[in-house]
Amino acid sequence: MAVTISEIQNLTTSDVLSNEDIAKFNNATAYAATIEAKDVTSTWKASDNIQVTWSNGNKVVTRAVNGTIAVADGKCTISGLVDVSKYSVGLNGQIGIGPKTNPEAVLVSVRIGNIPTANNPKADWIIDFSDKQESAPGTSIKLNELVEWIQGKSNDTTTVSFPPVKAGEKEIKDYTIEFKDFYYNATQNTFDFNVQSKDGDTIQFGNFTIKKAGFRVTNTPQTVATKAIEKA
After folding, report:
1. Which domain of life is it from (predicted)?
2. Is the pLDDT of residue 64 over 80?
């Protein structure tokens, strides 16, 4: 059997359109946010909540709600339909990955899920290790503690040598790296790894001092903001 609109129901009044009227609508074989038909007799109000169901025989393929109906000049339009056929799942929290002596020295703020948002309109599965949604703290890592955690997992006892710094300067092992973006889109197989040193943590190369030193690796196109130069 083919997919077709099996029911159009007014969720506000519990009324349904007749099969004769349902057969007049376009987009009958696949979900669409807007469907139209001519010569449909309806007393439903624009404020009513309309549900449209697409089915293949007795199997529901798509159930869409939140529709608004408008009847004018012999044409009936139902618009604003939202597909609610699929469930979305989200998991968020913090993972402690510090060394054995301080297991929560490094907190990775993580969010995993496929909930549709403005940044994820297609509900892809995304793993975000720098979660800042809903007041989440994001992720920051002290280099020395990260190295100690890695050594603890690998049973490595080698002494790690960090690049030397000038007398009086903060040692690189004590630098804090903040994750600006660190996510993996499992649906599209794309990623963005973007880290930056915390304010005040500078890196000295010879006579050059780099503030907010950053590093980025990504396979997604990025838009680089440019500042317009004012002419005299």
Report:
1. Bacteria
2. yes
Q: What is the pLDDT of residues 72-81, one digit of tens each?
A: 888 999 999 9
Q: Name the burial class of residue 204, with classes exposed (0-12), middle (13-18) and buried (19+) by CB atoms within 10 angstroms of its CB.
A: middle
Give residues with Cβ within 8 angstroms of 184, minimum separation 6.
126, 127, 190, 191
Task: Give the per-residue pLDDT at 65.
Answer: 96
Answer yes or no: pTM beyond 0.70.
no
Task: Report the SS3 class of residue 20.
Answer: helix
The residues with which 226 forms a beta bridge, in sequence order, are: none
Helix (H) or strand (E) segment spanning residue 101: none
φ and ψ of 50, to 5 deg: -105, 135
Give the angle subtended at the CA of 138 by the CAs of 136 and 140, to the nearest 5°.
145
How many C-alpha atoms does 16 have within 13 Å on its Cβ side? 10
